[in-house]
């Protein structure tokens, strides 16, 4: 299987962008940057029509990335993250709380990653790959080299070993800021895995927010991790989505049990634009221990 998983509030118990912001120690500037983004985003969102399908929702999100783009430009123009040392970033990683059970999930997966039966990727809009890597390094028995991270990153001056204030792609073609960006990168991961293998992968995507919705549609198995109620309520409002809760009695996912999986569209001119008209099944779960059961019971 090919696992692609979101980081903030899926693997972690809380959003970690605020942890990075605290490390920069510029509270007044951060308040201005955060408020500016929120005002632009809410002004855009308040003018949206009420949508009844996930496909129309994803199509609309393609036009909504301007707020994220403008926000990132402000963060860089203010050099908000300039001057952070590697030790400061490592301290951020040490302060992050993982969700209960994720450590055991990844530990159980390690033997399959070592023999290349499975792959595990993290796809995140986070701004520091180092923070993600060092958060995982805290888990006993984990070989971080077997986990591929796709995210944004804080550029580091090779001479001073301090961050420059610029944000750059990390194992991605461009910066990852929106649902559209995530879906594009997810499809690139799937394509690369398929090219390197003689047999098709079952693709599993796990995430918690609206930026993950496009990936749910494209994955063989899309799982909404129930970190907040809003994402579930949004998906429940769509007529082309069926939510199916995973609990301890749920039958385990199996490559041979194709009847419980929905197929992945293989070719699209724009990967994040949903062209399929069939009902999309998205699974829901709120515990990593349950996910471990349904994959390795």
Structure description:
InterPro entries: HAD-like_hydrolase_phosphatase (IPR050849), HAD-like_sf (IPR036412), HAD_sf (IPR023214). The chain has eleven helices and nine strands. By secondary structure, the chain is α/β, with parallel strands linked by helices. It has a single domain, classed as HAD superfamily/HAD-like (Rossmann fold, 3-Layer(aba) Sandwich). Strands 2-5-4-3-1-6-7-9-8 form a nine-stranded mixed beta sheet. Strand 6, helix 9 and strand 7 form a beta-alpha-beta unit. The protein is globular. It starts with a strand and ends with a helix.
Mean pLDDT across all residues, rounded?
88
Biggest sheet details: 9 strands, mixed
Strand % is 15-25%
Count of DSSP strands: 9
Identify the CATH class.
Alpha Beta
Structural class: alpha/beta
Proportion of residues in helical segments: 40-55%
Total discrete domains: 1
Shape: globular
CATH topology: Rossmann fold
What spatial order of strands do you see in the largest sheet? 2-5-4-3-1-6-7-9-8
């Amino acid at each position: 299987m090919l696992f692609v998983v979101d980081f903030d509030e899926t693997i972690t118990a809380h959003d970690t962008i605020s942890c990075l912001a605290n490390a920069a120690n510029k509270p007044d500037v951060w308040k201005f940057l955060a408020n500016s983004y929120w005002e632009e985003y809410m002004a855009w969102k308040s003018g949206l029509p009420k949508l009844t399908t996930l496909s129309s929702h994803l199509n609309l999100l393609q036009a909504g990335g301007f707020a994220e783009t403008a926000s990132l430009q402000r963060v860089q123009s203010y050099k908000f993250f300039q001057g952070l040392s590697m030790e400061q970033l490592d301290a951020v990683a040490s302060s992050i709380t993982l969700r209960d059970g994720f450590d055991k999930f990844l530990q159980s997966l390690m033997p399959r990653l070592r023999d290349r039966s499975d792959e595990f990727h993290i796809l995140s809009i986070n701004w520091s790959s180092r923070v993600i890597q060092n958060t995982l390094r805290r888990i006993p028995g984990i070989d971080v080299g077997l986990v591929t991270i796709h995210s944004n990153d804080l550029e580091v001056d090779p001479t001073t070993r301090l961050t420059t204030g610029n944000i750059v792609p990390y194992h991605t073609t461009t910066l990852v800021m929106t649902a559209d960006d995530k879906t594009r990168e997810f499809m690139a991961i799937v394509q690369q895995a398929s090219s390197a293998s003689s047999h098709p992968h079952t693709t599993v995507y796990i995430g918690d927010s609206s930026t993950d919705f496009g990936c749910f549609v494209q994955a063989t198995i899309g799982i909404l991790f129930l970190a907040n109620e809003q994402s579930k309520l949004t998906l429940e409002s769509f007529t082309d989505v069926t939510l199916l809760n995973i609990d301890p009695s749920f039958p385990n996912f199996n490559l041979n049990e194709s009847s419980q999986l929905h197929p992945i569209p293989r070719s699209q001119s724009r990967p994040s634009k949903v062209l399929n008209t069939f009902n999309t099944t998205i699974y829901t779960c709120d515990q990593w221990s349950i996910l471990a059961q349904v994959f390795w019971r």
